Amino acid sequence: MIARRMSQLDSSGIRKVFDLAQKMQNPVNLSIGQPDFDVPEEIKTEAIKAIQNGINKYTVTQGIPELRDGLIKRLQKERGVNAEGIMITSGVSGALTLAFMVLVNPDDEVLIPDPAFVSYKHLANFCGGKPVFVDTYPDFQLTAARIQPHITKKTRILIINSPANPTGVLCATRELKEIAELARKHNLLIISDEIYHDYDYNHAFDSIGRYYEKTLILDGFSKSFAVTGWRMGYAAGPASIISEMIKLQQYTFVCAPSPAQYAVARSLDIDLDNYISSYKKKRDLMYDGLKDTYHLIKPGGAFYFFPQVPWGTDEKFVSAAIQKNLLIIPGSVFSERQTHFRISYAASEETLKRGIDILNSLSRQ
Ligand SMILES: Cc1ncc(COP(=O)(O)O)c(C=O)c1O
Predict the structure, then answer these.
(1) In ligand 1, which atom is closest to the CA atom of 94?
(2) What are the residues facing 193 on neighbouring strands?
(3) Second CATH level (architecture) for the domain 41-265
(4) Taking CB atoms and a 6 Å cutoff, what residues make up the pocket around ligand 1?
(5) Which pTM does this prediction carry?
(6) Which residue, 172, 235, 170, is CA-closest to 197?
(7) How far is the CA of 205 from the centre of ligand 1 (A)?
(8) Most buried residue among 125, 244, 283, 319 by CB atoms closer than 10 A?
C-alpha cells in the first residue's frame, strides 16, 4: 500500500531517543534544536496585528513582495550576494524539499558533509539520488581538498551548511573561495543552508553565494527569531531554479503562512545582538565546563557541540546519559560514524550547568 520511495526514509535513530525521552521526568534536555528565548515582543505584535487586520488568506505563491524585496536588499547589504530570484518557503525544510525535488534526478550524486543535518541525506534518497558523504572529522571543516576525491561524472550538487548543525563549525572565507573554484571547475550546483548565520560569535560568517553564482541560498527565521513553529524560510539564487521551485510550491505548500510573512517583513531590521551575545556566553560556559573531560571543538556558531564519546559507542553513551536524566543525541543520527554525540546549548544557564555536571560524571565509565 505504501509507495516504495518511503522505504528510502528511516527515522529510527532520532525516534529511539525521543521514545526514551517520553519516559524521563523533568529531563536535563540538551537535545533541542531551537532557541530557548521567547519570540521578541515586536515580532509577536506584528503577527497579532497582521491576523487582526485580516491578513489570513493565501498570498501569492512566491511570497509577498515587501518581504522578498527586503530580503534581496539584506542579502546584498549583509552578504554581498546579488540573488537573481527569491521565494518565501515554509521553513528551510520546505525550501530543501522543493530544491531537492526540482534538482535531483535518479542516480545524481549529492555531496553531503559528514556529519550534517539529517534532512539532506533523506531528501537525496527520497528523490532517487545518491548521497555521497564528505568526511570532515576530526575538525569538521569542509574543504576543497576533502571534497575533491568524491567528485565523479555523476556529481550534481554540493551541500554547505555554515554555521553547521550538528557541529557549530563555520566555513572560513578562504575555504569558501577554494570550494567555489572547485564547484566551477566541475559545474556543480551549491545549496548553501545559512539558517544559523545570525549565530556567528566571531563575526566570521561569509556566504559562498558571494563567490559562486550557481549557489542556491536557503535561510529562514526559525532560529534567528525563535519562531520554529511559524514555518518561515526563503530560497534565493538562480532565477531558473527559483521559478521551478515556485511552480512546485503552487501544488504543494501553496504559500508560506501569510500572517508570519507580514510579521517577518516588518521585523527584518530588529536588533538580535543581545540574544546572540547571550548564546555566546552559553557556548563559553559549556566549553569551559567540558574542555578538560571531553574531546571537543569550540565552534564559532550555531548552538551545538559535537564532542567525541569518551567510551563505548554513541548509542551506549547516550543510553547511559538518559539513565542519569540527561537527554542528548547520538552522533550517528547525523553521521556515518558512531563516535560522537550532539549537545544543544539552547537552554537556560541552570540547565547547562546541570548538564555539565552529569556529563563530567559520565566521562569515566
Ligand atoms: C541546518 C538546518 N537546516 C534546516 C533546518 C530546518 O529549519 P526550518 O525550521 O526552517 O524548517 C534546521 C533545523 O533544525 C537545521 O538545523
Answers:
(1) 11
(2) 161, 218
(3) 3-Layer(aba) Sandwich (3.40)
(4) 33, 91-93, 117, 161, 165, 193, 195, 220, 222, 228, 233
(5) 0.97
(6) 170
(7) 17
(8) 283
Is 68 within 8 Å of 86 (Cβ atoms)?
yes
Q: How would residue 32 be classed by pLDDT, with cut points 50, 70 and 90? A: confident
End-to-end C-alpha distance for the chain, whole angstroms: 47
Residues whose CB falls within 8 Å of the CB of residue 341, separated by 6 or more in sequence, listed in order: 306, 307, 309, 314, 317, 318, 321, 328, 329, 330, 331
Q: Give the three cell numbers for residue 35.
A: 532557541
User: pLDDT digits over 73-110, tens only?
Assistant: 999 999 999 999 999 999 999 999 999 999 999 999 99
Per the listing, cell 550538487 goes with: 157
Domain spans, the chain: 4-39+272-362, 41-265
Tell me the pLDDT band of 13, cut-offs 50, 70 and 90.
Answer: low
Q: Averaged over 188-194, what is the pLDDT? A: 98
Fold of the 4-39+272-362 domain = Aspartate Aminotransferase, domain 1 (3.90.1150)
CB atoms within 10 A of CB 199: 26
Q: Which of 31, 34, 87, 117 to mutate to test the pocket of ligand 1 (most atoms within 8 A of CB)?
A: 117
Atom of ligand 1 nearest to the CA of 92: 10
How remote is the CA of residue 301 from the centroid of ligand 1, in Å? 14
Distance 233 CA to ligand 1 centre (A): 9
Asked if residue 21 has pLDDT above 90, the reply is: no
pLDDT single digits (tens) 224-280: 999 999 999 999 999 999 999 999 999 999 999 999 999 999 999 999 999 999 999
Distance 143 CA to ligand 1 centre (A): 22
